[in-house]
Amino acid sequence: MTDSPQGTVALGRAAAGAVRSLNHATLGGDGLGQPADAYELIGELSLAAAGLPQLLAQVGRWLAAALAAGRLGCDDGSDPAGAVSGAWLFIDGARSTAAALARDLGRAQQQLAAVRGEPEEEREF
Questions:
Q1: If you count Cβ atoms within 10 Å of the first and of the last residue's Cβ in the chain, which end, N or C, has fewer?
Q2: d(CA 87, CA 74)
Q3: How far apart are CA 119 and CA 66, in angstroms?
């Protein structure tokens, strides 16, 4: 992808699509074969979540700069400053939530570090 608005939106669409695909892949449990698979998947999701605070801050800074440069407007003709300010409040909250998500996923992964699958014949029923 190139550094263009269309490329940026396409990357966001791909990220959302990847989560949808992961939801489908793990729906019946067939998408995970061993505890190591869960460990790795949770680790990758932790990494993805860890990048969200930076991404969201950059989007917020872009909005602020575009507003300051007079490049934004509202469909109803009102001042876009209120909408951008309101959006920033939610973006800031999402940044904190994403950081907490990354932290909790990292901790969940640590808990799984020593878990292994048992062969069928070793399981007690």
A1: C
A2: 14
A3: 58
